[in-house]
Amino acid sequence: MSSIKGFILTASVLLVLVSVCLSAPPYITSDKLEMRDDLIEGDIVPNPESKNGIRGDRYRWANRTVPYQLDSNFNSSEVEKILLGWAEIENTTCIDLRERQSQDSDYIFIEKGRAESGCFSSVGRVGGRQVINFEPPCINRHGTIVHEMLHAIGFYHEQSRPDRDDYVTVVWEKIEPGKEHNFNKYTEEQVDTMGTPYDYGSVLHYSGFGFSIDGSATIVPKDPNAEIGQRIRISDIDAYKVNVMYNCTSFL
Ligand SMILES: *[C@@H]1O[C@H](CO)[C@@H](O)[C@H](O)[C@H]1NC(C)=O
Ligand SMILES: *[C@@H]1O[C@H](CO)[C@@H](O)[C@H](O)[C@H]1NC(C)=O
Ligand SMILES: *[C@@H]1O[C@H](CO)[C@@H](O)[C@H](O)[C@H]1NC(C)=O
Ligand SMILES: *[C@@H]1O[C@H](CO)[C@@H](O)[C@H](O)[C@H]1NC(C)=O
């Protein structure tokens, strides 16, 4: 734990809910935990200007440091799993996640949510106290812990990139009526893809079956060999984007 200096969560304005399945398959096929009805894209807390890498210095964490405070209701094994998620981000990026000190006014409170409250975060630093919520099953999927953290650092879902329609087909007629907003895409003015190729392997990409009326696919990769929805680890491109966002030249 000493090697983990802090925990990052950048919360900007959107909370992103990530769903997690208890028995946590590495590729998610159903995203109930990340698919709360009242949040944007299922796991993002609404932000008026939401949006891949959120644009705007005001959403960045000072000094590449994200102070966090863990809910005292987490038990020791839950804390250990959360810290492993943080460690992966610290290992692959210049972001420092550390426990909140009294002088930190901007920080993330990592809340142990009640059953069925979902897994969600804001996008980027919001200012003051912001929440990442983990209902207990969220903790059992490593990639979901990383996913929520990346939202808080400043990133939207991969499939909301402006160029997504060149890489995936959204099957609108299979999406539950009223849930279409979860498949929004953002403009170049709202998000920055940092010159990266579309990343099917992003830990921030939806699975193919979210918000489906009948269990059939709602997102189909145009590349027949691509797999989407992995929740195993931060992808190389995910880490690269964090390092570009925070000007971490020594990591690039
Ligand atoms: C960032 O670093 C500056 C200079 O060391 C310090 O004054 C400031 O308190 C730091 N801010 C945070 C949020 O750690
Ligand atoms: C972080 O990197 C170290 C050194 O390469 C490695 O031993 C450790 O398993 C990594 N931890 C995580 C959580 O990725
Ligand atoms: C911690 O809580 C989880 C439920 O979230 C439970 O499955 C686990 O057994 C608990 N571990 C300890 C060490 O109490
Ligand atoms: C990164 O560098 C750019 C250009 O110098 C600057 O505008 C921006 O504020 C920096 N961002 C961070 C998070 O340091």
UniProtKB/TrEMBL annotation:
UniProt entry keywords in alphabetical sequence? Disulfide bond, Glycoprotein, Hydrolase, Metal-binding, Metalloprotease, Protease, Signal, Zinc, Zymogen
Broadest EC class assigned to this enzyme: hydrolase
Stored PANTHER family: DISCOIDIN, CUB, EGF, LAMININ , AND ZINC METALLOPROTEASE DOMAIN CONTAINING, MEPRIN A SUBUNIT BETA
Question: Gene3D superfamilies in the record, alphabetically?
Answer: Collagenase (Catalytic Domain)
Residues annotated as transmembrane: none
A molecular function (GO) held by this record is: metalloendopeptidase activity
A Pfam family per the record: Astacin
Protein name per its UniProtKB record: Metalloendopeptidase
Please cite one Gene Ontology biological process associated with this protein: proteolysis
Domain Peptidase M12A span(s) in chain numbering: 52-249
Q: Its Enzyme Commission number?
A: 3.4.24.-
Q: Cofactor note, please? A: Binds 1 zinc ion per subunit.
Q: Active-site residues?
A: 148
This protein's source sits in the domain of life called: Eukaryota
Residues that hold Zn(2+) according to the record: 147, 151, 157
Q: What are the required cofactors? A: Zn(2+)
Signal peptide extent:
1-23
Q: Which CDD domains match?
A: ZnMc_astacin_like
